[in-house]
């Protein structure tokens, strides 16, 4: 499965990059395939391991912020691996033809 999620600290002002970095650090240390862009971090793996990473990423932000917002989108497709790369490669193939 692939989960795209965004963790946003609330009540800490406009500059939230330091808090978001705490969440991304958890994802990177997980060892799971992942990708971070300006809006979301995507992580790929089995249900329990991915949801554990999301839970720990939220907890990392929650430890420093009085309130946390979580947006999550999941692509649950058993038997598919390397979706983070293969989905993008498919789109790129169509764009180049």
From TrEMBL:
Signal peptide: none annotated. It comes from the Bacteria. InterPro entries: MTH1187/YkoF-like (IPR029756), Thiamine_BP (IPR002767), UPF0045_domain (IPR051614). Residues 3-92 form the Thiamine-binding protein domain. Belongs to the UPF0045 family. This is MTH1187 family thiamine-binding protein. The lineage of its organism: Bacteria, Bacillati, Actinomycetota, Actinomycetes, Kitasatosporales.
